[in-house]
Amino acid sequence: MNRRMRGFTLVELSLVLLALGLILPGAVIFWQLSERHRVTTVQMDAQRQSRDAVVGFLHSHYRLPCPAADTQGVEDCAATRQVGMLPWRTLDLPRPEAGALRYGVYRAPAGAGAAAAPLDQDLAVARDRMNPLRVRTPDPIPLNANAPNPNAPPTPTAAAGLLGITQSGNDVAVLNAACNAANAPPCPLGVDNAVNLIDVCLALHTASDSLVAPAGRLATQVGASRRTAAFVIAAPGMLDADGNGQAFDGANATASNTDPTFEAPGRAVTTTYDDIVMAASHTELFAELHCGAVLSAVSHAHFNVATGALVLERAMYDYRDQLYIAVVLAGGDVASAAAGVASAVAGSLDAAKEMVSAVADTTMSAGARAFQIALAAVGIGLAVASDVAAGYAVVDAALSLAEATEVHNDFAARTTAMTELARSVNVNALVADAIGH
Prior knowledge:
InterPro entries: N_methyl_site. It comes from Acidovorax delafieldii 2AN. This is Prepilin-type N-terminal cleavage/methylation domain-containing protein. By secondary structure, this protein is of the alpha+beta class. Among the domains are: 26-105 and 209-280, no CATH class; 309-434. The chain has helices spanning 10-61, 197-207, 251-254, 282-288, 291-364, 371-434; strands at residues 83-85, 102-105, 219-222, 225-228, 231-235, 261-263, 276-280. It has a four-stranded antiparallel beta sheet with strand order 1-2-5-7. Strands 4-3-6 form a three-stranded mixed beta sheet. A hairpin with a 2-residue loop joins strand 3 and strand 4 (225-228). Helix 2 runs antiparallel to helix 4, helix 2 crosses helix 5 and helix 5 runs antiparallel to helix 6.
């Protein structure tokens, strides 16, 4: 055979095969790692966009979206569904790969009615949960008559600050005049405009009380504990790592409405687990929405102002009643002064009688008792002075009565204005809540 036509020798072929044996496994491993990195990057990017879309949905709808029943991406809120696929169409996400993500939302509904609304923790329902605390004010409005007020402001009690709303269900006339602070008749739940992020904040606040998730509520499995989560978005990774025949591994594959438990976001990737979990806790969302300062102000500002107005109102009515007592006492002084005038007149008549008696005694005694005339004259002078003093007392008492009456009436007008202010504080808070402020 010609040397030029000769092929590989066995040694050369062995060297080539050895080189390929060394290179190909490395190439496969490199491809797997790069492909896993690519898939992970795509899925994490889809998760981040999905999370932003979920939070945006929360801002615009005042609730979290319900899970989708399938990969078509339309939310399904039936039967308080907690776990499903990400509702990417409902969220207007432009990437269908988001439909491969699993999604869970925290749902813990309370009963119907205004009394149960503050306890509602169903984050997939827009509900008017946060209503201003009301302070009882006089009804009917106290009238400033010439007697102690029968409609005095009530003493603050536990029943004075009620959670509830005064709404007619009409956007134009948001308040129902038939509803009062005692919620009688029962005030209907109000208009859609009354629901806002403050209601979401209240639900996040009450639901965050439990670090360990209640049974049947959305959670992530952190060690041996189930930690509450507001919502969870899980990506399946590249492989069926645990060989369960599903794209998702571990608890991410078994999470359901009856047991809505996902794996922890921090679980490391292993040979049996390659999913990626993104979860937002109630506390995290509470901080992200800046709920702390807002909820604190809304919960206490109106109540504190209304309570201050009520306390001032009560104080003013107490002062008003004291001024009324002053009017009554001034009237008594007028009557007493009139009695003093009558007494002074009687004294003058008695002094005149004594003068007549003194003159008679002096005449009968041939002047021996003339000193009695001088004493009688002094008595007449004192009686006249008493008459003058009594007359002055009458005038002074009348002036005091007029002044006390004027002060009382002027102050009474201000107490009525204070009542109007106290009632206005309550009404303004209710109207602001009803129109969504």
